[in-house]
Prior knowledge:
Blueprint: E1 9-12, E2 15-18, H1 24-35, H2 39-64, H3 69-97
Antiparallel strand pairs: 1-2
Helix pairs in contact: 2-3
Amino acid sequence: MATPATNPVLLFRGIDVELNRCSPATRNAITADIGGANPLADLEALEERTTAGAAGQLAATMLANGAAAVDIEDALCELRAHLDEHFLQRKLVRLYER
């Protein structure tokens, strides 16, 4: 009796990926990225976590203080622009360090 083929599932940048369903090139890229250090991918993951946390905290604080929806939206847009610029600079530093 043959054993069923296993379909390895890896967590890749927050997503469960079934490697057997990927093209060989994608599978190789994912396994190489997971196996090796990729500072830009690490920085992008940090950026996503930081932005989500900061936006949630800012919105919750402003809501608790009774801020108007327009003011909250403006503050979130300014926060996003600030964090985008901050992380762009960090990405450029990482790229030029390579």
